[in-house]
Model the fold of this input.
Amino acid sequence: MRHSLEKKCVGLPVQLGYLYDVRSEKFVPMSILNSNQLDKVIIQTTDVPSIEYDYTLNDSYEEKFKKLEISPELKLDILCGLLNTGSGSVGKEIPELLRKDLRILEV
Done:
């Protein structure tokens, strides 16, 4: 029986093996897995039997966070602007869905 690991994250999609430059907080478009033969030996691909799409007509932050299943702590970080919205921070990238209209909240 095959098992799959499913993990939700907020971040940039990158190719397997890409390097990350911590000084610039960007991914380097160079893979350590640069050989096609090596890729076939260590990378196992699996066809996805189905894809789910989840739509909402409501454009509120509450609905966006709910659909993306973002934790309360991460919600606070996003709304306070504590996350780096640059082009390469690992696991800290705000999805385009949220970034397009985030505004500073006045208290």
About this structure: The two ends are 53 Å apart (CA to CA).
